[in-house]
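ARCHIVE CARD
Drawer: 12
Card no.: 0347
Subject: one protein chain, sequence and derived structure
Cross-reference: see card 0346
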Amino acid sequence: MPELWAAVEAGRLRRARRAELAGLSEELAREPLTASQERYVALFDRSRALSLHLFEHVHGESRDRGQAMVALNALYRRSGYVLAVNELPDYLPAVLEYLASRPAADHLQIHGRDARHNVRKRLPPAAFRDWNPNVPPDWSRRPAR
């Protein structure tokens, strides 16, 4: 937890977000590690609606998901971004890390215009601006059809 707090304090998170993280970290510190791990798995690994793998929301179980993974990996390689060996390219923390290193104009290359709507339904744009102030304010607007 000390590393987490050093990163939070060094970043540009708003006071309200820091307070929310403080509450979460206190809660996690009180319970055994195995209990926290069980909650994580139940929340993100066993719930399709909250999956941290973005292409599951976009492509589901279709074959398009595999091709989308290949294309995203190629985009990462062209940009010099290297994933951990055991990480899938559509894993939300990896996608956010990649986006934080890129100019805002590159953000829609990941999924195209429709992804903006899919992600917007789950996370408000302010959540992205807390970590990456380069996200433009109009990012959350519904894409034009």
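Annotation on reverse: The first helix runs from residue 2 to 10. Residues 49-140 form one domain.
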